[in-house]
Amino acid sequence: MTAASANSLRRAPLLAAYSLLVFAFLYLPIVVLILYSFNQGGVGGFPPRQFTLHWYQQLFADGSIWDSVLNSLLVALGAVALSLTLGLLAALALDRASFPGKSLFRRLVLLPLVLPGIITGLSLLMFVDRLGIRLSLLTVFLGHGTALISVATTELFAGLQKMDRAQEEASLDLGATPWQTFWRITLPHLSLSLIASALLIFTLSMDEIAVTFFLLGRENTLPLEIWARLRRGITPEINAISTLIFLVSVILILIWYRIRTRTIGQEATELLERP
Amino acid sequence: MYSRLYKALISVPPLLWVGLFLLLPYALMFAHSFWLVRDGVIVHQWNFQNYAKLSQNPVYAEVLFRTARIAASVTVLSLLLGYPLAYYMSFHASLRKDLLYQLVIVPLWVSYLVRGYAWKTILGSDGVLNGFLQYLHITKEPVSFFLYSPFAVILTLTHIYTPFVFLPLYASLEHIPRNLIEASHDLGAGPRSTFFRVVVPLSIPGLLAGATFAFVLTLGDFLGPMLVGGPSSIMIANIVQSLFGTAYDWPLGAAIAVCILLLTIALLFLAEHLEKCWAFR
Amino acid sequence: MTAASSTPPLPHPPNQALLEVRNIAKSFGAREVLKNISLEIASGEFLTLLGESGSGKTTLLRLIAGFAQPTSGEIWMSSSRFDTLPPYQRRVNTVFQHYALFPHLTVADNVAYGLRVTHAPASEIPTRVQAALQMVKMQEYSSVRPSRLSGGQQQRVALARALVNRPQLLLLDEPLSALDANLRKQMQGELKSLQRELGITFLFVTHDQEEAMALSDRIALLKDGHLEQVASPREIYSHPATSYTAQFIGQTNLLRADVNNGVAISGPLRWPTIAPDGPMLFSLRPESIQLASSSTSILNAVRFRARIHQQIFSGSVEQLEIDHSGQLLRVRIPARGPLTGEHEFAFNPADAILVRD
């Protein structure tokens, strides 16, 4: 047995091949989707024969799609604002305050993250119905905001835990009020976590279907608009818009990842440098 | 260090929101399950009829079991795909680990709809898969069971939930101190022995978290069957959805939803309890 | 440097060499961590690898354990090639710096691990585990999980887990560095007597020179991937080979001197020496310099006057810094109360040891 094979803990060809297959499984459908958005002959069949930008042209001329994009943007921005504010407060409360029912509170805040969307959607539907509120983008906004608080809370709580408490104490020691300390010390420390949360909430809200399904009024969000068209029939135009959604999501997620790893980058570098 | 006012300011708004938009709606859903529909109108007459209907009519139990079976299949398949991938990335992929990780999380956050739609176009009779098979002359006619079948639902949901299963599993594996692997080798255990004696036991919390996630979310999924499922793959959430739609019977729908909610909470508690037993920190 | 083909085994010294490290070099990418190390470890000895962080001592240990491969060179154990074996086939066990106890196993299962994976007879295992735990005085904790143990207790279990397998060589990677001072001294004593009792060869890594001096039969001092000196503690203290050794182990005054016809001249100080002519470097330990008034018995004493510049009281000794016409020297004398002004000092010229740079 040579020295090289004794170190074969690094190489594992079968495992590597299997991993490659898993990656292929994860990406193949998306690749096919993108490919066929340029196909003259429709979404099916094999192989794709004629390259065309016709579907994208059709897409860009499609007014109701862009209306729904606007609706989605409105809801998403609103959801970001609401979730971040409440999520920040919830994270602070979990980090610093103790009150009766705190663990119940913690579970409730995190529940929409693990519950199927239908439960959150239905319960809110019954709620707004009892209050006599008409279904509209407002109700969709309420649904997204409620469902996505958990995302903000989790990220911001993690950010708070990593913060050096002594910095706030130093600030108070030097004469700043708690309010000043919050704005000058705490919030800047959380800036990366806030941006990361905002990106994630935005992306999730733009893609949200399950909760939106039950709270939708007359105006569609983008996913629900696509959903409605699917009922009418499949065209490569849907491939085209799906491709665009995919691309935008990828960019946003990669930015989110970079930001996130920057906050933990410090720790990671220290770990790597240990002899 | 923090004044009472400060603590009140930070806890009251989220508490209010959670109470108003989570607790209250759940309570309302609970209440609805005890009401009735008569002549197309919801009547607030307290009764157990809905629950009686659920327990007596075998259809509901059947669909629930079918849903559970699909959820179990999806979970198991996701684990079979996700665990080796996570293990490979954590222990063998030293250089490109970061890039690979990004490649895995991207599908996770990209729209459910996009992915479900993609499978729809692939699996149909006129779809890409059939076209591909016919092109290679492997089949002469389109295979119909690819789409609108339990197969399609399981395939699509596995595709969607494999990254969900991967994430906590990978985190768990990354947390295993590498000196434990060295210690195991030092004491005479080869790579395979080390895997089963050290790596697997210590990865169980992540495994449980991922599996619970996948199972619970699949249990309440209604989009998958609507996109790629057929009459034989209707899941429990589809029944609920139609009761809130065309088959207007909110109380009955609420009753089923309550059952799903309770089942979910029970599973989450079970998973949490098991995770505590297996957390050795 | 390409991998050397098998070199013939060195002739066996009277005390059988257990492990031979031959011309080992190790680089991580462009960084050369070990440069041409050759060392023999005798059977039954307590050898310490001493050095600062970055000296390569831990890397060398890991090469012997099998967690890394040498870039070039060979390791032989008892006349058979060693470095080509994977760690799970080497009759060597390691006590890790942070214990590396398996958190999901009890203390007893941890200790039994090595026996189980190498398929030792099942009937033997419980007794051997108990014996090992008794050796480290942890037999009461056999069904406890490691997370409930203190650092010192975990250290003992780690020791038992390694020793129960009766390895030919035990590797210890700075095992005491995470313990507080008192516990550390106690464990040092226990380790030493354990090693004497069992007769197992110990290879110990530390950066603490006092620890090395207290425990070892021999010390191998590493600097920047080179072996500075390999000798017993007494030898390495009284006859350091280099200035680095003289300064790293204990304290010293390093005197640059010009030797002319048997006389060394270092600034205002001069003393007779047998060193060859030319510019030389000498090491003179602070305790070698005494107050002339209390040192009437020094042989051929060299005397000089100097002013007290600084005095630090350390319980049993005074640590003085004296000013000899501009030349600052460190002196260590038994405690005798505050001193001021000029005094006469003396030292035995034979205590000025010639060292390499």
Defining key terms:
heterotrimer, A: 275 residues, mainly alpha, MetI-like fold, 13 helices, 0% strand, disordered C terminus, B: 281 residues, two-stranded antiparallel sheet, 12 helices, 2 strands, 75% helix, 2% strand, globular
The run of helices and strands of chain A is: HHHHHHHHHHHHH
* Structural class by sheet pairing and helices of chain A: mainly alpha
Tell me the number of helical segments of chain A per DSSP (H or I, 4 or more residues long). Answer: 13
Helix content of chain A: over 70%
CATH superfamily of the domain at 71-228 in chain A: MetI-like
Radius of gyration of chain C: 24 Å
By CATH reckoning, the class of the largest domain in chain C would read: Alpha Beta
Q: Which class of the domain at 71-228 in chain A in CATH terms? A: Mainly Alpha
CATH topology of the domain at 71-228 in chain A: MetI-like fold
Q: What is the architecture of the domain at 71-228 in chain A at the second tier of CATH?
A: Orthogonal Bundle
Topology order of chain C in helix (H) and strand (E) letters: EEEHEEEHHHEHEHEEHHEEEEEEEEEE
- Strand line-up across the major sheet of chain C: 6-7-8-3-9-10
Distance between the termini of chain C: 27 Å
What does this structure look like?
The complex is a heterotrimer of chains A (275), B (281) and C (357). Chain A is mainly alpha-helical. Helices cover 78% and strands 0% of the residues of chain A. Chain A has 13 helices and no strands. Chain B is 75% helix and 2% strand. The mean pLDDT of chain B is 89. Chain C is of the alpha+beta class. Chain C has 2 domains: 17-240, 3-Layer(aba) Sandwich (Rossmann fold), CATH 3.40.50; 251-355, Beta Barrel (OB fold (Dihydrolipoamide Acetyltransferase, E2P)), CATH 2.40.50.140. Chain C has 8 helices and 20 strands. Chain C has a 6-stranded mixed beta sheet with strand order 6-7-8-3-9-10, sandwiched between helices. In chain C, strands 13-12-11-14-20 form a 5-stranded antiparallel beta sheet. Chain C is elongated, with a radius of gyration of 24 Å. Chain C starts with 16 loop residues before the first strand and ends with a strand. Classes of the chains: A mainly alpha (275), B mainly alpha (281), C alpha+beta (357). Chains A and B meet through helix 2, helix 4, helix 5, helix 6 and helix 7 of A and helix 1, helix 3, helix 4, helix 5 and helix 6 of B.
